[in-house]
Recover the amino acids of this structure.
């Protein structure tokens, strides 16, 4: 029977605490993140995302994924802002898992002349059967104030997506 030296015990104890400490911190950071007040669903087939029961200032904010929302594909994505935000300074989309941490994916959008913003978005593949995603819109308005709202969608993991 092998006995561990004090150095080995300290090493293993430190490694154990480090691994589980980091895991606990990541879980705490990402599971306690509240959703924005303005929240809406996305339709996977049409790719349309819209807000429901939102503060008036966000009325008309929609996202369109060209040809629907699919896994592991670059999807041309367009955000249409309401007139109240026609002079927005910067807009980005932030995609992250709702119940499982798979990273944070940020997509800065390019402004087009008609108060729409565009970029390509990739929805990553999760190994679970179903994954709920939160797509946050983070915007700096004309006055330099941060604005945020979000859309939710669940997507299944079809084998052919691989």
């Amino acid at each position: 029977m092998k006995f561990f030296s004090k150095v080995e015990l300290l090493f293993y104890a430190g490694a154990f605490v480090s691994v589980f400490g980091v895991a606990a911190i990541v879980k705490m950071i990402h599971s306690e993140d509240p959703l924005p007040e303005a929240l809406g669903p996305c339709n996977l087939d049409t790719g349309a995302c819209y807000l429901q029961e939102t503060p008036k200032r966000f009325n008309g904010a929609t996202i369109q994924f060209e040809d629907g929302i699919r896994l592991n594909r670059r999807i041309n994505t367009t955000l249409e802002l309401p007139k109240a935000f026609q002079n927005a300074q910067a807009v980005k989309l932030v995609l992250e898992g709702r119940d499982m941490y798979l990273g944070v994916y940020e997509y800065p959008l390019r402004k087009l002349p008609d108060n729409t913003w565009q970029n390509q978005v990739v929805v990553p593949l999760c190994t679970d059967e179903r994954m709920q995603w939160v797509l946050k819109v983070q915007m700096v308005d004309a006055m330099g104030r941060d604005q945020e709202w979000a859309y939710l969608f669940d997507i299944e993991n079809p084998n052919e997506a691989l």
User: Anything to note?
Assistant: Strands lie at 39-41, 48-50, 62-65, 75-80, 90-97, 104-108, 110-111, 116-121, 130-140, 146-156. The chain has two domains: 1-32, 35-161. Helices lie at 6-31.
